[in-house]
Each structure stands twice: as structure tokens, then as C-alpha cells.
Amino acid sequence: MSDKKQSMIMGKKQIMIWMTSLLPVALAAAVYGKLPDRIPMNWGFGGEVSYGAKSDIWIIAGMAPLLAGLFQILPYIDPKRRNYRKFLEVYQSFQLFMQIFILVMVGIILTESFRPGTIEVSTVVTAMCGVLFMMIGNMAPKFRQNFFCGFRTPWALANETVWNKTHRLGGKLMFGAGILGFLGAFSPWEKMKFVMLFVPLMAASIIPYIMSYVWFRRFSQEESQ
């Protein structure tokens, strides 16, 4: 693929991200006048629901354009900004998925505001988190050194080889955590949903951090010999 054609595709994808970021705001605006004064905002794994003022919907919906702007700015303030060219496609894919995630969350809140009990919220959200972890796991090995995306340990940022090894391991663990979280979403026991989502996620976050240090020390020792 030529650089010009790739640039056009990336440009169209960025436009899609911005357009998608406006959908939660538009959706909230379209029904805001009909919303009850109190709307559901949080769902616990035990089935409990916390309510907030209907104006709180703007906090969730407003996150979409806010994140779109933030993701646009980050490459310009990152000391390793040149590396973003090497993983721009996955960087934009992640942005798009996050926008879809927020759109679904706004849709859930609005649906449950008008017709409580329509959606099995814990199942849907847990399953989406599982998909998100799988997506991050698939993308992680493609990330290049930067200060905002991936397993940004000090040792990985100091050594490119350590960065690559950390992200290959972290990607596999995160993908596995996503699979377990997704399967756990369909468990009839709410506590099992919590365990299968967060315990693998903790392991997928901690193990690469530890191994990053181990690999850095190993390479440092080899270079000093």
C-alpha cells in the first residue's frame, strides 16, 4: 500500500472516530427532556443499582469527545512521538473501540432509565470488558515505545528489546484475561463474573511489570560483561 493511500485510510478512520464520539452526546440530547429526574448510573455485581441526577448523563456522554480530543493530542506531547507512525493503525482502532464502548454505555443507561430491567447490565458490560481486554492483548505486541499506550514500565521505556518482550508477554496474558472475562460474563453467579474479570486482569498487569524488570537486569548484566 502506498504512503498516500495509507494516509487517506488513516484520515478517514480519524474522521470516523470524531463522528462516533459525537453520537453519545447527540443520543443524550435527543431524549434528555423525557428522562426521569433520577437515572441509573452504576450497577454492582450483586445486582444493586445506584441512581444519580439525569444531568449525570452528560458526564458519560461527554467523555467520548473528550477522549477523542485527548487521544489526538497525546502523540504531540509524547517525547517518543515519532514512534506513533509505526502503530497508528492500532492506535486508531483502539480509539474507535473506546468510542463504541461509551456509546453502548450511554445506550444502556438510557434504556434502563425508560425501561428498567430490559438489559442484563452486568453480563453486557463484563462481556464488553472481556472483548476490550482481548483487543488490547492483540494490539499490545504492535505498540512501539511511547509514554501513554501499553505496559509503560521504566525498564521497557529504557530498552527497546525489553519493551518488545514485555508487550509480547503482556499481549498474550491480556488476551487470555479477556477470554476468561468474556466467558465469565455468562456465569449465573455474579461473584464469579467479578472474579473471572478482575483476577486474570490483575495477573496480566502485574506479571509483565515484573518480567520487564527481570529482563532489563539480565540485559544490563550481559552488556556489562
Summarize this entry quickly.
The chain has one domain. 72% of the residues lie in helices and 5% in strands.
Structure, explained:
- It contains 7 helices and 2 strands, in the order H-E-E-H-H-H-H-H-H.
- Strand 1 and strand 2 form a beta hairpin.
- 28% of the residues are buried.
- It is globular and about 70 Å long.
- It is mainly alpha-helical.
- Helices cover 72% and strands 5% of the residues.
- The model has no long low-confidence stretch (mean pLDDT 91).
- A two-stranded antiparallel ribbon has the order 1-2.
- It has one domain.
Which helices and strands occur, and which strands form pairs?
Layout: H1 3-31, E1 38-43, E2 49-53, H2 57-77, H3 88-114, H4 121-139, H5 154-158, H6 160-184, H7 190-224
Antiparallel strand pairs: 1-2
